[in-house]
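Input sequence (624 aa), recorded before submission:
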Amino acid sequence: MRINQNRGFGLLALVLFSIFSILSSRAQADTAAPAEGQGNTSSATATGVSELPEVTVRAKGVDQAAAFDQMHNSLNKVNVLSQDQINQTPAKSVAQGAEQLPGVGLSHDTSEARYLSIRGTDPDFDILTFNDAIIPSYDKAGRSVDLDAIPAGLFGQFELSKTILPDMDGQGIGGQMNLVPKSAKDYPGGLFELQAEGEYFPERSQPGARGQLTWATTLDLGGESKLGILVTGGYQYSRFGIDDLEDDISDPGQTPAPLVPNSVADYQFRYYDYERDRAGVGTNINLDLDKDNKLYANLFYAGYDEYRNPAMHTEYRNIDALAANGSSVASDGTITINATNSGTFVRKTFTDELTQFRDLAAELGGQNNLGGFILDYKATFAYADDNVPFNYNYRFQDNSVAGTLTYKNNTNSGSSPSFNFSGLNGTDTDPTQFLLVPSKSNNSTTSYQVAAYGGKADGKFDIPLGGGDASTVKFGAAMRMEYSTYTQTNFSVATGGTPLPLSQLNPASYTYYNGLYSTGPMPDFNTTNNLLNNNSNQYEGAFTQADPNGDKGGDYTNWEDVYAGYAMYTLKSGPMEVMTGARLEVTHIQYNWYQAYQLLANGDPNTSNELASPIAETGTIDYS
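Predicted structure, token format:
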């Protein structure tokens, strides 16, 4: 009945760490002796006084000092974070690395940084690029990219542009962060680097692990031709938990009105177990034919699998403070509910879900110096995917309770409520009273995919002005065609089966917040799996598709095509540099969607078209 949980990223981890063990001895053999001027030295300046050894630390790849030079020489407002700097922090994802940049805010979800906000702008107005090619979002509700899915170790540096130039995509009006791939050119002597570390997650007393491997070399092909190759990969395993208490406030406009404004309609005790397998690979190839002609290819593929196994909820419902139901409020704010008169019941649910997030970006391009005219060109492809292979939801039959319960939620702005359920006399915690029935079980699969094809070409040339002054003209064109699709399929249990009491599922209670709250009895995940992971079990039959064949309700496909042209003129005179330019974009968007329960045989989807042609003008002055 159930889908076996695969561990695709776990296999990738095994391969990576096998490579680590094979090549680690070679890395030790490549360790060079200190260069002249780098050796440890000590000298006595007085009796009993000595100088500490002098140590010169050389960064690998682009160091932060070079990043500062790049920021200083940039025409627009740019901050650069090098891989050397990232390695000095505990950052593991691009989101955690971006937190080191000034002017960046990150919103968090499930304990990790996720969405980028540049100088307070909405994340949907900020874009993420890979070597200036847009990475699409797999969030079907917005354009912001989930940065927690991409390992930080795949890239040489992060470039944060707080103002955009005409040769940058107009979608990022709030700003953009460019992920610059690691390059073999950054390691002229070659590189073998292995990083490994362990973690510990106290919420569930679980260990974690992370590893990163980077290898680079440059081959001399004869003459001026050189071939640089770099491969990097990383894996992270983490197992953690989230403890949560949520509520729904009573409707103040209901009749009769609640006795106090802080009356609550229900409390939800939530307990989550998460497993995340995050991995990624990146590749850079540089082919320098000679000093005037170069070709390159860059790629990264990353993401993570997230297992919620399980998410468990215990909900106390119909606990509004209503005088008509016999509720009362004490002088200290304690609310007493007559559960019998209020129709209070306890609902228990648990969920087993796998979600897979993927990002991919690739580019192939080159640069030619045609007698002083610099021609740059590239073709790009990017892909994002949010896939839910299974999302099993189980709900026990609601259990009506009798007696009284109390809660007090007027301290700490309601963030630390206290409860007393002893007046229910165990009717809320008796596992024999909670029955898992087939009609309350369901499963769904969803898939949202985005593919973007692009290209860009521009040329630039210098115009000498005499007296040391110079100007540069740059012009070009770019295009991006993006296609997205969303599908969902629902399943339900086909046969009746025998109700399964919670008492047969090896129940246990989970307490959190230092024992302040408890879920009450909840099913053991493994026991439940063993009983239900069989199409012939007596409790539930196989899940079958609940949607009619051909039902496309809620599915959709979208197209977004962007065509742009731009021109820039830069003048440099002494310490002053002036740039002006313009960009014209034409965007065509088409939406195709199906109404709820619309069958494919009943006609074509609904269609909507939009056309926009914005013009952006830019000018900057730099004096230094």
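Checked by second reader. Residues 8-29 form the longest helix (22 residues).
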